[in-house]
Design goal:
Number of strands: 2
Order of helices and strands: HHHHEEH
Strand order of the largest sheet: 1-2
Helix content: 40-55%
Largest sheet: 2 strands, antiparallel
Organism: Anaerostipes butyraticus
Number of domains: 1
Protein name: Phage gp6-like head-tail connector protein
Structural class: mainly alpha
Length: about 130
């Protein structure tokens, strides 16, 4: 059961990528969990209902964007992987580059989803007072 986005919203209002029903439920649940994590758990199903409509819409959009991001980058397994550091197939060889923190791991969070949430204040890392 999803709290922020249903399949109808994802398909008809957001116009998301084609995802089968079983995979939709998994991706949606994971995307919602990641968006809650991204907001430092300020976003909850109860808090969502009390938010202004424009903030609710940004949350819905962020969940959909996060779903597409997960789907494009390995689906539900993305959260469990550590990234590919190197691979070889015949004459082809791939070595992953490291990021600024020395990690080859790809972020679990969609950069676009985070940008959608910036105006809401839900991703603000500073103090509350």
């Amino acid at each position: 059961m999803s709290y922020y986005v249903d399949e109808e919203y994802y398909r008809t209002k957001y116009h998301g990528e084609e995802v089968d029903d079983f995979e939709f439920d998994k991706l949606c649940k994971m995307a919602e969990e990641l968006i809650e994590e991204m907001t430092l758990y300020r976003l909850t199903p109860v808090a969502f209902l009390a938010m202004p409509e424009d903030v609710q819409e940004r949350v819905r959009q962020a969940v959909c964007v996060q779903m597409d991001y997960l789907d494009a980058n390995g689906g539900a397994e993305m959260d469990n992987s550590t990234g590919i550091q190197s691979a070889t197939l015949g004459k082809f060889s791939y070595s992953g580059s490291t990021g600024t923190n020395g990690s080859t791991e790809q972020s679990r969070f969609s950069p676009r989803a985070e940008r959608l949430l910036w105006p809401t204040g839900l991703t603000y890392r500073g103090g509350r007072y």
